[in-house]
Structures are given as structure tokens and as C-alpha cells.
Amino acid sequence: MTPPTGFRRAVTALIALCLLPTWEPVRASDHADPLDLNALNPPKDGEPRITDLHVYLDKDQNPALPEAKNLIVSICVFPSMARLEEVPKDQVDAQKQNLVMVGTQLSAMSGGDPAAPKYKHTQPRPLNLKSYRYNIFMDLNAQLGFSSVADRERYGATILQPDDISSEVELEFTLNNDGSLDPANFRLTGLPSGRPVVNAPYRDKEINVRTGVFDDPFIFPRFFRTNIIGIVVSIPLDRFAPQQRNFLVWATTTKDGKQIDHVGRSQRTQLPRFDGLNFLPPSKHVADINRRHNNPTILEDFNRTFFSPLFARRPYDAMPDVLIFSRSQPTRFPNGRVLSDDVAALTAMAGDTQLWEASYTDDNRYPRVTMNDGEYRINPATGAPQRNPQGQLEQFSLKPFSNEFPYFASPWLVGEKPEYARPRLARPNLTNNTWRIFWLVEVVGLVVLGALLFFLVRSRVLRGFIALVVLYTLWKLGGVYAVNDPMMPMQASSKLCRLIGGGGVLGALVLGIFYALGWRHGIKRPPADAALPDSNQDLTLHDRQFTRSTFAEVKKQLFDPALRDGASQQPYYHTWGGPNEKPLPVYSITAGRLVTSLLAASRRTLRTRAVMRWGDDHKGFRRLLHPNGIILSGEWKINDAPPGTNYTGYFKPGSRALALARYSTTAKETHAGKWRSLALVANLYPTTDPNDAAAYPTASLITQEDLGGTTTYSIREAVLTNSPPVTPWRRGAGIFSFIITALKLLRADKQPLERQLYEISEFTTGAPVSNPSCPRFIKLTTAKGTVEVGGEGVDFRDEILAIMYDRGDATPKRPLVFDVAVSDVGERSNITQRVHGQKWTTIGTLTFTEAVASYNGDYVFHVPHPRWRDDRNDPKSVAREDLR
Predict the structure, then answer these.
(1) Residue closest to 335 by CA, chosen among 447, 415, 247
(2) Entry pTM
């Protein structure tokens, strides 16, 4: 029975809310990034993430040159770096680990003037530049179009084949922690490198590289009077082909072999809707932008719907994030980018206005300053800003750019002009009273619902878990009660995330209460006998020594009325359906028993061939996962085989074998219409004579429904396979037992979700099968014509007995037949754990003619589990060495 779609939607919504605090941070290509929506992990300044990318010609920065001779490419990292402080000569050795390379002068560290002053950084913690690798890439063969005015103004040109972008030139840098660069840590591919000049006096006609601390060149008030680490490269134009006019340029940051940042056109990946581009090569950018629009994930769809100003796609978005530079056009952003380009204004003209607005909110002056570290000139006579003849306010730069390589301005030092005091705006936030009302509602709800569920459940493990979850949530909600702090810009988002988390816990408690109430007021069954065995689940001497058994003897122990109820003080029944017969007993499992015993039991089932496990006291063993079942006796028969297969053993057409099976359910729920997982396991005997006195080894067959449970109303609806799907959320509060089971089974064998069939294909009474071959999947379903009995609330054991017997009559009347289908193809998905793509072929039947519910069936009968093989047809490929 399919659960209502409303429930699925509720679960999906709850998952989405729980994911809100885990949004990935957006790392990007400009100083205001990363825009991080994770309120519990606010952005930090002073990290070596990549920021600006500039591409221009030397003549663009120095118009006095007769012609352009060099292409200049630069990137900036470590935004908002603190000012430098000069180190007295007698303290240089003591401050060695804090010294930094000043990019505008060649100090003794780079072989320059030994008398040059040394500077140290004033960051609160050591610099960590060596852990990062920076790469600049150039595509020299990209096809550009200039006919679209819109693309030309937004991006510099139209990239005609964005999926074909690839780098022909690559520059790689690994900086030292002081900002310097060893020549050995600079690599250039794709161009004649000659003899690169690294942090040494400039040499004409050579590739020159300069690194170190500079003034931050970004024209934006928030970063005025701050420093950055810069990398500037000058490449002679004659290193490129004479006809080379167009360049696509981008840069990346890599840490531990993983790309974590990308820079191209200014501001692009700073925007939340482009966050995914930071981790992709430009050739995949357009495809990813289109995918997020046409086929978004649940979270992406949620974001673009409810946070459309941040995440909704614009009509002009489908362009890779690269900086286009064409020598056939004037150098002005977005065609390249010179140091003096006011990108906040230029990107706003193209449609992205975030930086433009922020440049006003970060500065009290109007109109905004458009020069690096800009100031308005003050008229000394009036004390007011001075205007030029055109009436415009006159500006000047405190740190003007240089017209000589490396072009950046010198860094800011301690004691220079005071740091820029930008206005502090009040962050939007609810009042303390409003936050505390929300806090009180959730706290009361958690205490009341947590206490109710605590007393409803019976498991000590569950009670402890509920207490821990409630106490932890109450502790986290303490941050909601805290007084608002204007110095914490992310406090409102943090409080909201905590409330959302508390709401998720409240929802989980409500669901738990519904499940617990269902347990309390379900169908009443007589309690299990308190004298039932609670034996050790470990491998015993009998388990190790057992190798063969006779079908007749085992069947007798299970079916003979004088033997089948063994150590039980109360037989299940004398004649099923007879007068005065009691309901069949229902046994339960507990999470505590699974924790203490399941691993030992799982290991034992993989190491023994025993089919009857009596134990030292001859009472058998308590089952941990399938305590309630019914024994079936019948015949395995194969009539056909899928085309193109060559199955061996008892999968060959014409094969017949006797079978003793147990049909059971997980946990204690046995009734139709309730959440349960039906299973059928069997021992096959290589004989067709029920009275055969010979002892044989058996072959195991293990099948089950969805491991998370279903609500089938009859065994006729059940689909049993050796590789069942897994839907754990169907377990309700039983999900904790499910998790414990999964962890224990994973420790016992490599693949607990699939039981291989090779024992049947290698089954023989003669010489071993030389080239065994078996199907990967098997499916059992009841055959057409099976008697229709059952219905909601009927115990599956009563249903099976009603199919095969008449009430009050111990003589079997009808067989219970399962169709046997196989498939060699199919793949299990990683997330939903469902097997897809199976092609089933019916090859035979499993026909049962007798059935009994008995003590020995529930406590003594045992089906060994096959050990997982990496190749199911290779006996030498058992995955775990200790099982070989």
C-alpha cells in the first residue's frame, strides 16, 4: 500500500528545512565575497581566497609608452589584510616568522638592497599561503562575436562556443607564507618562458613576476586603506602568435588538490546564483547555469522560488565566468580590466547592482568616490570640498597606482593615515522580546512533547536518545534567548536557523508520539513465555561441526506434533483453526538486544552450515530480527532459463530439490496493513525423495520485501527478492533499531543488502561444478490462482495456513506456489537504495504443500547466510579475509 502523498511532502519539507543551515558557502571573485548563507559559519576576512583579476596592456597603465609591448595579468588574494609595521633592525631575527614581502620594493629577501627596511604583518594569526595553489589560465583560440551590443557591454563579447573553452596557457604559483615566490614554485606552460624574472629587478623582453603585499586596488570604500597579497605577471606580446588578438582569462584557487575558488569577470561568482561555478571549469559553466534553471535540485528550486532576488536566473546569465580581453577593442571593463576601472558602477550598468548599492551604504560621502583610496580635495579657505570649473567635486588618491611594473600602489603601514571609518548600519533584527516569545513557545513544546514521548516508548535506548536530543536542542535554543548584539552581523540568521532546527525536532517528536500511540493501542496479543531462551548468539562448537542433515529428520523436528513445540510449555496449537485454539504468539525485539547480540549472530550465520540450532539447554535461540514465522515444506523446480544464460547446479532447467523454508516478518508486527517486512528463507536439499535417509549439505535462499517495511494487505502483494530496496524512514520509531541493524550487518559482511545465489548454482551431489554460473537477482511472487484470504489486521501466518488448510482440519488442501523469476542486470542507486533496470524472466516455481507454526520453527530452525563474493561465480573471491 502506497503511503499518502501528503506524508511524503511533509517529510520533504522537513528535510528541506533541516538543510537550510547547511547551505554551501559561496566563494567568489570579488572583495565582498564570500556571500555565505550559513549563519553558523559567517565569512571571515583575512583568508587567502582569490579576489580581483586584472588583464590589460602596459600602455593602458602607462599612456606615455609609444606602443604596447606586454600583457599584464594580476590577481589579488587575502583581502582586508591588516597594515604592515616596520621592524627595527635589531629585532629582525626575532620577528622572522612574521616578516612579509613588500611587492613594491625589493628587499633583502629577494636579493635586493640589504639595507631596505623589513616589514611584518599585524594579522592576529600567522599567514597560511603555502597551503594554496593559484593558477591563471588563458584560452587563445576562443571564437568571439562582437555584434551583440548587450553581450559586449556586459561581458566584453559573445563567446560563440562556450563548451569548447580550454586553456592553452597556464601559470601556476605557490607562494611562501611571507608572500614571496620561489622561482621553483612558478610554472608556465603553453608559452616560451625564456628566463622568467621572479621578484627581481624588471628586465625588458622577459616574463616578469612580482608578488608580495600591496595596497588593495579595489575601488570600494570597504577596502580603502587595507592591503592584499598580489601576484602580477608581465608577458611580452611577442611570446604570443603575431595574429593573437583575443584572450579568455580566468584564475582558480586550489587546496589539497581540490578547486575551491574561481575568478573571471568581476563580481560574477560573488552572486549567489553563480555559486556552483566556483568549482567547475569554464567549459561547464553554461551547462550548469542552464541545469539549475531547467532541472534544479530540491534545494536549488527552493532557493530560486523563495529567494528569487538572490537565486533566480536572469535572461542574460548563460555566459561562462571568464574575463574577455580583445586587443581589437579599447581596454575598459568588461573588455579586460585596468586598475582604475570602477567595476561597481560598470557592473551595475550591466544589471548587477549589489556592489553599486553597497558602495553607497559603506560611505557617507556623496557622490561616491571613484578613485583608489580616494578623497575629496578640501578648499583650505572654506573647509568645503573643492569643485573644478565644471562644478564636479575634485578627487585625489591617497595611494595612486604606478605607471611602472608592478603598477600596484605601495602597502599601508601602521601610523599612516587612519583606517577608513565606514558607517556602521544597524543590522535588521527582531526585538529581544519577539525572539524570546519564539524561544518560549519552542521550549515549552520541547519539554511537553519530549516528556510525553519519553513515557510512551518502552525501550531504554529510545528514552535515552529522546532525552539527549531534547536537552541538546534546548541548549542550542539558548542562543535565541541571548540579547541582540549589534557587533554580530549574522546573529539574526543564526537565531532563525536555531528556531528552524528546534521546529524540526518538534515535528520529529510529534511523529514519534503518533507511532508510539499506535504501538500502545494496537491489537493485543498474549505475552511471550517468560521461560523462552535467551542464549548466547555466538558461534558454538555444534555450529562449527555441523555440515550435513537429512531432509526427513529436520522436517520431523519441525512438523511432528510430538516434537515441533520442543521446549515450549504451551504448544502453538494442536489443530489450526480448531475449537479453543489460542492466537499464535507474537515475539518482539528490542534495540538493546540488537546492540548486544546482533553482531555475534550475524557473524555466526556466515560461519555455520547448521540448519537446526538447539543450544546447550536444547531450547534453541531467540531470534533477533525475524522472531515470528511459519515453516513451509515443498519443492524447488526449474523449468526454463533466460536466453543466453548457462546457469549451473539447481538453476539448470529440469532441476528439482526439496525445500524447507520459513516465511517471517521483521520485528513483532505480523498483521496485514501495518508496517512490516515479509521474508522467505529456505534450505534446499539435493533430493526429491522425502524419505531419503542420506545426509546432504544444503543451499540457502534468502529473500525479503523492502527492508524499511511495507503495508501490504496480503502475502499475495508481497514481492520478495534477494536484493530488496531500503526505505528506512518507513520504520517510524523503529528506525533506531534499523540503524543499529545496518551498522552491525556492515561489520559482519561487506554487502548486507544483497544475498547472493551461488550456493544454488554450485549445488550438486556429485563432482563439484567446474564453471558455476548463477543469476544475480531472484524474485518470488505468489502464483496466479492463489486463494484470496487475508485482509487488514490478519496475521500473515494465519493467512498462509488458511491458503493451505481448512480450519480444524490438519490435512493440507491446497498448495502455496511461488513463481521464481531471475535477472542478471540491475543497479542499486546510492541514495534511495532501490534496484533499477532489472529484466525478469520466470524460470520455475517453489511449491509448498505443508505448513506449520511451531516453537522449533521460531527458535531452532536456521538458514545459513552465503558469504559475499566480489565475483559471485568465483569461490575464491570471498570479500572478507576472515570468511574465506
Answers:
(1) 247
(2) 0.54
